[in-house]
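User: Fold this; tokens only.

Assistant: Input:
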Amino acid sequence: MGSVTLNSPRLAVPGLYLPGAGELGSPKNSVGDGNFDNIPAIWTLSPDGGTVEQSTTQAKYGTSSMRLVASAQVVYAYQNILLPVGHKFYVAAWCWLASGSLTTTGLYMSIMDWVGTTTSANKTLANGSLGANWQKRSAVATVGSGYTGLRIVCGRTSNQTAEYFIDGILGVHLDRCLPKSKLNLPEADLKTYCDTRFPEYF
């Protein structure tokens, strides 16, 4: 496992961090409406007979979150982020499973390679193992060849009934702010670095 040097995060303004030691620029949250104050305008919703909505029942950041409720439906929301092929992107989110089986709900937060109407599985942030408290899930993804960016997806796919909340989605384009010494870390070490560098939503 490679060596990881951690910098203390220094928040400049909402959505922007001051550069850390050796960083190339200010890390920025590239996910629009990650605290779900303006869901219909930013996120594409696919309720399929279930529920995808802004909710004030639970909130990790601010006063609202995304609430998803399903019973035998494929319910999800997503947004696309343009990124060059080969670039690395860190995504973190906070999830709260209000009801449903912890192992069979099909709850997921995922990153997918994206171009036009085509997507391909890339990384899964969370899948099932959540409870009735806010838990952080994260991943680092690299844009695959032939794609124009990544799709951030919040949803569920199995036939079990579930209700859950997602809040504080953070996405950082790592090639724009980290030096090569960090980008070249093994993926697990880069994720560990980012989890500590960006401990909270901004």
